[in-house]
From TrEMBL, chain A:
Residues 93-173 form the Large ribosomal subunit protein uL15/eL18 domain. One of its GO terms (cellular component) is mitochondrial large ribosomal subunit. Coiled coil: none annotated. Keywords: Ribonucleoprotein, Ribosomal protein. GO terms for molecular function: structural constituent of ribosome. Belongs to the universal ribosomal protein uL15 family. It holds the Pfam family Ribosomal_L27A. This is Large ribosomal subunit protein uL15m. It comes from Plectus sambesii. SUPFAM superfamilies: Ribosomal proteins L15p and L18e.
TrEMBL record, chain B:
This is Large ribosomal subunit protein mL49. GO terms for cellular component: mitochondrial large ribosomal subunit. It comes from Plectus sambesii. One of its GO terms (molecular function) is structural constituent of ribosome. PANTHER family: LARGE RIBOSOMAL SUBUNIT PROTEIN ML49 (PTHR13477:SF0), MITOCHONDRIAL 39S RIBOSOMAL PROTEIN L49 (PTHR13477). The keyword Methyltransferase does not apply. Belongs to the mitochondrion-specific ribosomal protein mL49 family. One of its GO terms (biological process) is translation.
Length: 302, 214
């Protein structure tokens, strides 16, 4: 042993010594003073202070200043506590009674197809896409008195509401509008004044594909024969005779449907509205035409 | 001490020399501009404004002048055949006149006011959207000692009453008490032409107004 060199002995000592890491480093005793609460207001975290007490609070389960740590991430038990609050879709309701009243008072013209644009243009119904609202929900209040024969396009409809409209001889379609198309649809004049081309409607998101391809909901992506079958099925279920639509004076109006890419009736996506000259500018660029033809959407190909 | 003084003096001297040189530079510039003023001041000014200093944006100097912005042009076809579809999309700028219906009430229960107006000491004006001036109000009642919670009462407020408001209130109460079979409470605000009713539904007051012809 004694024959080893000093270097060798030092290395040997280090090899057997316990590892020294940063965590072993400590302050000298008395090197730091412990923090003390100077004033109460310095430690309120904005929670009970006068200015902030009355301010807007985030929804339950979320904490101001740290939106990366909602409760369902902090606490494993609260898995779905308001988790999707920023993703939920709201559909402001419109009852059949209100719809009938709008028609009775001349706000809506039943001889034209009624869609979200027509409803918002009355200024009696409001839909704000910036509040994560996704269109009109038709509720069944006043289903017993509804008598107008309309071609209606809504975003959500209950079964009773669909039955009431179809019993009166009308047609309901539920259609999805993505937020940009919805912004154009709720206030077309504002959109045209910006000089932007009419947007094309995108496909519904994955969780809504099922709704809008279902004929029982009168989805706009359902096949027409399936919708016809669902109409007669609902008439049997609720118990009314389905009016015959073959020799109807309003047959053309009732048969009118928007293309799944279309936002406004009669206007194709990609066109620019020239309000000053009262003309429409239709682009010819093949790349633009390709974009607005919707062939980029995989769902349209299949 | 001496060393520090020497150093500070050196700095001062250097600063002084710099200021001198800048002054002479300025003087040179001024003299040249005054000389050239006689020749063409406009042209000189124009070039000096257009050419930026190198030190202001050395990157620009190194890379050369930026290319002109790319222009995206697309050919388009102009047509006015579809303008009627655009006209459909314009909002109502005034409240529309209600259309003539074959029979009243309409499916939604609306009626126009009787024409001519009924011969009564009072008159109830419609709202500008052709609806009845009936509004619902909620007022806090007494504390319920069993639940230790406040009760609330629903009131119906009739507005736009012109003429003899008290006569209207008398008729309204007589009609409603005969309908619902118990006494009801009313409150008249003569200045505002408003009557508040407690203990009935809005539909009952609506029926009274329609029967009177308002």
């Amino acid at each position: 042993m004694g024959s080893k060199s000093a270097t060798e002995r030092a290395l040997n000592y280090l090899r057997r010594a316990p590892r020294v890491t940063l965590t072993d480093v400590r302050d000298n005793p008395g090197a730091r003073t412990k923090g003390r609460l100077v004033r109460k207001k310095d430690n309120m975290a904005g929670q009970q202070y006068n200015d902030l007490r009355g301010a807007g609070k985030p929804p339950l389960g979320w904490i101001w200043g740290d939106f990366y740590k909602p409760w369902q991430r902090i606490y494993p038990g609260a898995t779905f506590f308001n988790q999707d609050i920023n993703l939920r879709r709201e559909y402001p309701p419109l009852s059949l009674l209100e719809l009938q009243r709008l028609i009775d008072l001349g706000w809506l013209d039943p001889s034209l197809p009624i869609d979200l644009t027509a409803l918002c243009n009355t200024r009696q119904y409001r839909c704000d896409p910036s509040l994560r609202q996704f269109g009109v929900q038709l509720t069944d209040e006043g289903a017993s008195v509804f008598a107008a024969k309309v071609n209606l396009e809504v975003q959500w409809a209950s079964e009773t509401a669909i039955a009431a409209v179809e019993r009166a001889g009308g047609v309901v379609t539920t259609a999805y509008y993505d937020p940009i198309a919805l912004t154009a649809a709720v206030d077309p004049l504002k959109w045209f004044e910006k000089g932007e081309p009419i947007p094309r409607r995108h496909s519904p998101p994955a969780d809504l594909i099922g709704y809008y391809t279902d004929a029982r909901h009168r989805g706009y992506l359902a096949s027409p024969p399936a919708v016809e079958a669902a109409r007669s099925e609902l008439a049997l279920k609720i118990g009314y005779a389905l009016p015959d639509r073959t020799d109807d004076a309003q047959h053309d109006m009732l048969a009118a449907r928007k293309d799944p890419l279309q936002v406004f009736f009669g206007l194709a996506p990609g066109w620019v509205v020239n309000l000053a000259d009262q003309t429409l500018l239709k682009p010819k660029n093949p790349r633009l035409l390709h974009y607005y033809s919707g062939r980029l959407d995989a769902s349209k190909d299949s | 001490m001496a060393a520090r003084n020497f150093a500070s003096m050196a700095i001062r001297n250097r600063l002084y020399c710099k200021s001198l040189s800048s002054q002479s530079f300025l003087r040179r510039c001024l003299s040249s501009s005054s000389e050239s003023n006689a020749v063409s001041s406009v042209g000189k000014l124009g070039t000096s404004q257009e050419e930026p200093k190198i030190w202001e944006d050395p990157w620009r100097h190194a890379l050369g002048p930026p290319p002109p912005p790319e222009e995206y042009t697309t050919e388009f076809e102009e047509s006015s055949a579809e303008w009627k579809f655009v006209e459909r999309l314009f909002p109502h700028d005034v409240i529309p006149e209600p259309p003539k219906h074959e029979s009243y009430p309409t499916p939604s229960g609306w009626r126009p006011p009787r024409d001519p107006a009924p011969n009564l000491p009072y008159f109830i004006r419609r709202l500008r959207n052709h609806m009845l001036p009936l509004f619902l109000e909620s007022r806090r009642d007494q504390l319920n000692l069993e639940t230790m919670d406040y009760d609330y009462v629903e009131l119906v407020k009739l507005k736009n009453v012109q003429g003899d408001v008290f006569a209207c209130e008398r008729d309204l109460r007589a009609y409603l008490e005969s309908k619902v079979g118990h006494s009801i409470a009313t409150h008249v605000n003569e200045l505002q032409g408003a009557i508040r009713v407690k203990g009935v539904e809005r539909a009952d007051v609506e029926r009274f107004l329609f029967e009177q012809g308002f």
